[in-house]
Amino acid sequence: MKRIDCDLCVIGAGSGGLSVAAGAAQMGARVVLVERAEMGGDCLNSGCVPSKAMLAAAKQAHAMTVGAEMGITPATPEIDFAAVKDHVARTIATIAPVDSQERYEGFGVTVIREHARFTSPDEVQAGDTAIRARRFVLATGSRPLVPPIDGIADTPYLTNESIFDLRERPEHLLIIGGGPIGIEMAQAHRRLGCEVTVIEGAKALGKDDPELAGRLLAMLRDEGIRIEEEAKVTAVSGRPGAIRVDTEKGVFEGSHLLLAVGREVVTEGLGLDVAHVKHGPKGIAVGEGLRSETNRKVYAVGDAAGGLMFTHVAGYHAGVVIRALLFGLPAKAKTAHIPWATYTDPGLAQVGLTEAEARDRHGDALEVIRQSYEENDRAIAERRTEGMLKLMVMKGRPVGATILGERADDLIGTWAIAIASGQKLSKIAGAVLPYPSFGEINKRAAGNYFSPRLFDNEWVKMAVRAVQRWVP
């Protein structure tokens, strides 16, 4: 048995774990990183990266079918589904070196590719190596949730961990789950020539603003995607190529089944009870500083810490933990400024409070500003006017924003920064942006907050008239 003593042991080489390990090692800490599977975690290998690569291919295919209004004759694309998956694989391979073992060893990190298990509150075993550390960071991530549906054990199904390996195009893809993953995969497969049915037990995109989510779902239905809501699944059955899903609203049949009903935190097999680390189905029990409530040597980041399960949250958590571990500074993980996006075309993005949440919290004092893409010159030029920004404002400061439309995932960044920094709308309204650009949607929305205060205010008009009489 080999033994290693270090300052920090990180378990899990996904986004959060890699960020902690790289930052700590480059600032002089002795770091051991333990990963039993692939470097880069779910996001690189079976989540964010492959899904966006597949969506990009689908967008290219769809572009060939539209454009008549611009003078481009629509054409039916010839889709090589296996070649699309080659594109997905190349994308992963291109990014993989950034997360590779070699790169992190170059930072000075000791990387061990084994399963880690606590043998005491301050020691873990990984293969034939015992690691004693002053602090531990659990970054073990999550995996697709497989719900206890009647018949699921005997029915072939896909998850995000297996669907990108499928090289033959599904004739009819049934998707259980109408959240972001299910909706993204629905549009990607529909545009690549598949019949698609989404089956959701409640409301599709139920965590997003109902008004703009409803608009997006209507657009997806217009593309030929069948979306069944309030259809609780009671049983599944079938064989490869012939799948049946029974619901309270009826029976759906297709060739393939994708489960996209959520994710569960990975904690089993870590020996957390031996380490006196309190945990549950939602992850490690941590305080605002992401420190274990029951073992002060242990921290958790990303999905392992529960809460919002996004790659960028794991990266944010890494920064919080590094400040505490390396510099002893007080640091708290907050959520009000965390954005998220559904990467459909058009996209749907959110930061801060939705309209309903903001009204519950602020009542009649809340102001909601709507800015249509139809008034943006760049959107008009590109014929991408099917969008809307909803801005929730309290006393001149944004408290939430929802965007449906082209580049929503990029545009939401302005509001994420504004909410994180407590910025006033006057700063955004006063910005000078390139013309024509989609960014002017944000600027104009901020300006619309001040328009009635300036143009519909009699006191302002009286002051202007007085100045005009006296100024030479």
From TrEMBL:
**Which Pfam families does the record cross-reference, listed alphabetically?**
Pyr_redox_2, Pyr_redox_dim
Q: Which domain of life is it from?
A: Bacteria
Ranges for the Pyridine nucleotide-disulphide oxidoreductase dimerisation domain? 338-445
SUPFAM superfamilies to which the protein is assigned, alphabetical: FAD/NAD(P)-binding domain, FAD/NAD-linked reductases, dimerisation (C-terminal) domain
**Which keywords does this Swiss-Prot/TrEMBL entry list?**
Disulfide bond, FAD, Flavoprotein, NADP, Oxidoreductase, Pyruvate, Redox-active center
Task: Identify this protein by name.
Answer: Pyruvate/2-oxoglutarate dehydrogenase complex dihydrolipoamide dehydrogenase (E3) component
Q: Where is the FAD/NAD(P)-binding domain?
A: 7-317
Q: Which residues form a coiled coil?
A: none
Protein's organism: Limimaricola variabilis
- What does the record give as cofactor? FAD
Protein family membership? Belongs to the class-I pyridine nucleotide-disulfide oxidoreductase family.
Q: What Gene3D superfamilies does UniProt report for this protein, alphabetically?
A: 3.30.390.30, FAD/NAD(P)-binding domain
